[in-house]
Amino acid sequence: METMRWEDNKLVLIDQTKIPQEISYVTCRTYQDVAEAIKKMVVRGAPAIGAAAGFGMALAARRFDGNDLEQFREFLACAAEELKLTRPTAVNLFWALDRVKRVIDSCSDFRKLPEEILNEAWAILQEDIEINKMIGKFGSKLVPQNARILTHCNAGALATGGYGTALGIVRTAHKEGKEIQVYADETRPLLQGARLTAFELMEDGIPVTLITDNMAGYAMKKGLIDLIIVGADRVTACGDVANKIGTYGVAVLAKAHGIPFYVAAPVSTFDLSLSSGDEIPIEERDAQEVREIYGYPTAPAGVPVINPAFDVTPHQLITAIITEKGIIHSPNEANVHLSLS
Ligand code: MRU
């Protein structure tokens, strides 16, 4: 399944707001189109947002019609600022835009700049797939034969360049012949677990059972879950992890039941400038997402709600973080530093 492709100088995104009812695509012709697609979650998931923003910069570069390098750089800086304003939590967005900025700063010929930015966007996308496969290999070592794995939200092919982080581990374990079974939290309010994770795994023929978010404790208590694997949107220097709202609750439940809680994250998801999870900006989304499902009201109109899109799981609740560099057991500042340096 292709999350995004570059076609005829446009970025084509699979529309993740429509899956599974329909498989349709959104074509981005401008960087503003990409910004809109990120905001509306046509494309979502930390690594996928980063890659899309890279292509957004490639689209911006194609719009400049001057011939002054400094003006070109200023024009691109404005585009990057607009892309940065889309979603605040996943650090991969800022990481990818920084990568593109380094290309812009080091290029001395404005005629070559559009091609160089496009090449960088491609590199971000393709490297991500390779990184996910490495995460899959390391992570699969933690998955026993016949494991029953709970996951939250979607950290799969759709959330990345392809293959997935948490679901990359699941895919690798499945390929290795382990008879695994996945339990997918539906993940209210936007149902990424029900709509995307269940869809992806069924497409690949990997056994998946859907549960509502409030069944996770029941499933753990009944002995139905052997381990948990989730993705991440931002990991701090001490190993605190921001991920989809509800992840923290799953981690607390896992601790209470003595079940290992693993996080799969590429190095690009680490923000070593932050010392603790309290510093991670948490996106607050439109209240209507909580009051309704697919535009159908599920609560009285106007009832006050909060809608944080992410929460932070403190590192003390995390058994290990799996990156493309290896496994960080019992993450804390020293272990994270050792593993990433
Ligand atoms: O709001 P979303 O759907 O972008 O949130 C996605 C998640 O929380 C994922 O778990 C995370 O980005 C990791 S994706 C490999």
Description of the structure:
The protein folds into two domains: 4-131, translation initiation factor eif-2b, domain 1 (Four Helix Bundle (Hemerythrin (Met), subunit A), Up-down Bundle); 133-340, Rossmann fold (3-Layer(aba) Sandwich), CATH 3.40.50.10470. It is 41% helix and 17% strand. The chain contains eleven helices and 16 strands. It has helices spanning 31-40, 46-63, 69-84, 91-106, 113-140, 166-175, 192-203, 216-221, 247-257, 288-291, 333-340; strands at residues 4-7, 10-14, 25-28, 148-151, 181-185, 208-211, 227-230, 234-236, 241-244, 261-264, 270-271, 292-293, 296-297, 310-313, 320-323, 326-329. The chain has a seven-stranded mixed sheet with strand order 6-5-4-7-10-15-16, with helices on both faces. A four-stranded mixed sheet has the order 11-8-9-14, covered by helices on one side. Helix 7 (192-203) links the parallel strand 5 (181-185) and strand 6. The longest helix is centred in the middle third of the chain and has 28 residues, at 113-140. It is globular. It starts with a strand and ends with a helix. 5-S-methyl-1-O-phosphono-5-thio-D-ribulose binds at residues 44-47, 90, 153, 155, 159-160, 165, 192, 231-233, 243-244, 309.
